[in-house]
Amino acid sequence: MKKQASDMGRRQMLKALALGSAAGAVASISAPALAQVTKPSTQEPTGNNYRETEHIRNYYASLSK
User: Fold this and answer.
1) Which of 41, 42, 40, 60 is nearest to 50 (CA)?
2) 9-57 pLDDT per residue, tens
3) Exposed, middle or buried by CB within 10 Å (0-12, 13-18, 19+), for 4?
4) pLDDT category, 64, cuts 50, 70, 90?
5) Taking the model in full, what pTM does it have?
6) Which of 18, 29, 39, 44, by CA, is between 20 and 30 Å from 57?
7) What is the DSSP string of the chain?
8) Can you give the pLDDT at residue 62?
9) Rounded Cα distance, 55 and 60, in Å
10) What are the φ/ψ torsions at residue 53 (nearest 5 degrees)?
11) Nearest Cα to Cα of residue 22 among 14, 11, 10, 32
12) Which of 32, 9, 8, 28 is nearest to 20 (CA)?
């Protein structure tokens, strides 16, 4: 009975080591990705993204009623 109790302690230790090493690997891989901070763009919008379509014109027309 005493031997079985010592096996449980060893199993728990091995599980903890496996989980700890897996967590360490994930942390070391994801840390550089989390550390990269993008700065907001200082460029002014060029206006190429805005297109006045039919549904936009209808919306503007509904505002003036």
Assistant:
1) 60
2) 888 888 888 888 888 877 777 766 666 666 666 666 566 777 888 998 9
3) exposed
4) confident
5) 0.37
6) 44
7) -HHHHHHHHHHHHHHHHHHHHHHHHHHHHHHHHHH--PPPP-SPP-S-S----HHHHHHHHHHT-
8) 92
9) 9
10) -100, 180
11) 14
12) 28
Token pair in block for residue 63: 């505002």
The residue type at 51? R
State the residue for tokens 């009975």.
Answer: 1
